[in-house]
Fold these 2 entries.
Entry 1:
Amino acid sequence: MSEIPEIIQELIKFRDARDWEQFHNPKDLAVALNIEAGELLEVFLWKSPEQADPDKVREELADVLAYAFLIAEKYQLDIKEIMLEKIKKNNEKYPIDKAKGTAKKYTDL
Amino acid sequence: MSEIPEIIQELIKFRDARDWEQFHNPKDLAVALNIEAGELLEVFLWKSPEQADPDKVREELADVLAYAFLIAEKYQLDIKEIMLEKIKKNNEKYPIDKAKGTAKKYTDL
Amino acid sequence: MSEIPEIIQELIKFRDARDWEQFHNPKDLAVALNIEAGELLEVFLWKSPEQADPDKVREELADVLAYAFLIAEKYQLDIKEIMLEKIKKNNEKYPIDKAKGTAKKYTDL
Amino acid sequence: MSEIPEIIQELIKFRDARDWEQFHNPKDLAVALNIEAGELLEVFLWKSPEQADPDKVREELADVLAYAFLIAEKYQLDIKEIMLEKIKKNNEKYPIDKAKGTAKKYTDL
């Protein structure tokens, strides 16, 4: 089994051992993801990027990823496929000659 | 190459072709992740979980994952490793006999 | 003094007694606001709207409002003015005859 | 009528003219608040605090405040009262002699 399905299998095993699927509707999973994204952001609050504690980033990023993977599983989305597909779309949205060296949003290019 | 490093390699290729590493400090990556998590959440706003458009979930989830993977890369974190490690920790934080069937936070178990 | 300036004055007094203005640049205030918005959202996680604890809503909402008011102060924005102005704009963006009874975004009306 | 009730009255008038109370359960209002907080944060993305566009801050902050005020109304919370109460609590949580000049969280003081 490749990596991503293996991780998802472990997440599901953890969830099902606790009978938590009943709570994991996709809306609450998206809510949980936002809460965890906020906790990850808190590692950087009032700090320069360099001052953030890497061990805390590690902890909080794992939580963010867990909910992201569970949402993918809920919709039977293939994570590699949707990410490569998005990179392809962004290649068109942000053509290199226009986007190079600027942080502007595609709507402002 | 296994899946996750392959995806990260594509993200980096996209980033470097646009000379965007200069903007991608970890704090702004965490900011970007929160913005994308908000956009994913918007797919569910004023709706029951079933009413959300799966195609929009697909799009927004890919953006969330992209920034999560870029943060992992920035700190040289192995995504599979940190996720399995977190599941192990949560196994202790949420013992099956106490956590089964309840959505309570570990602090309230 | 009317209510809003009075609240802001108390927030500033609290901040300045701790010499915290040095940390309160507008970007970190917006980061802090997002973290607090996430904590407010957590009160509703895995729950129906009715199951949320009103005392926790009270606590977390106060934190959200504090950072929102501090951002207003930072840019010398008059909270009443910007809110009434926005309602006026939304009156045009969401004409009653098109928006009545539907939760659609203005871009989909 | 004082300022805050006056603003809330305008928000309710806008809402009721569109028959939107049916969508405004407190959980979705908290979801909406998070989405708007993310849009406010986007004004600062990839930028130093000084580079953010004040006109965009004004727009997005008004949206954040609107949902915060609507949540207060939903729970019949007096905004001034809960904010002053929170400042009082924070005065105890962050004693001046320990908190002065440091951005540490109260749990680390």
Note: Chain B is about 65% helix and 0% strand.
Entry 2:
Amino acid sequence: MAIPDWLDETESRAWKGYVLTRDRLAAAIGRDLARESDLTFVEYHVLASLHSTPQHRMGLSELADTLQWSQSRLSHQITRMERRKLVARESAVRDARCSDAVLTETGLETLCNAAPGHIASVRKHFIDNLDDVQLATLADTFDTLLKYLTGGEPGPSPQNT
Amino acid sequence: MAIPDWLDETESRAWKGYVLTRDRLAAAIGRDLARESDLTFVEYHVLASLHSTPQHRMGLSELADTLQWSQSRLSHQITRMERRKLVARESAVRDARCSDAVLTETGLETLCNAAPGHIASVRKHFIDNLDDVQLATLADTFDTLLKYLTGGEPGPSPQNT
């Protein structure tokens, strides 16, 4: 019994390369973060997501959508981070029945302390291994994929252009 | 207090695009798999990894390395998959003190049943949204990154070439 292989050689290299790179990149960058800060990659991602908003807060539903997590998984994560005073839960400004996750002073300080090392790690394992053309193509490729994945739009063109 | 932003615009689009795409792509492809088969993306990945070897078996250490998981996380995963008879644990051929994970008949059948839908899903969410140049560049880019991440080799050239 064989698995049908409906991907051609380049497609297969792109997809399998993506899957393998994804796991190894997360591991390498996660190890650097753990060594140099008290944050996991996931915690850094949550803090950086909150930091990216003007008020340093985000509705739990929106944050779950950004991270593509279930509400329940996010809720457990936020509870763990609340215990460490990295984030707080507050009533949402627009609708008191909903909750926002809010970056605390401790969270901001922890994020800012971790950022230089994390950015250096992203450079080392990802950016500095790629040339300008690869980087620019990657940036455009992820723009295209994100547009599709967030809006359900079809890609900009048929596969072969 | 601000996070230093040491990535230029293209670098930032490439990295943040990568992180956001990664989470959404895994979610979209995971949802398709869950709807059309009894497998999670992780389970599919384990079965496909075993299937990719000539004997449909792999040492637990090697499998942990392929997936970039701790031995303990892998062991729990394999135990859950053993209960469903998707894989079996056997003494390693080369060293009976070590264990191999082995693809069972049920595992093979489950994988082969899931494969056409999974490949269609990978096409839909990933490959078909990209043109030939993007795909070829991605394939080369992931080759470069994997070579570095698996061997600790420096990238092929300084950043600007």
Note: The CA atoms of residues 30 and 41 of chain A lie 5 Å apart.
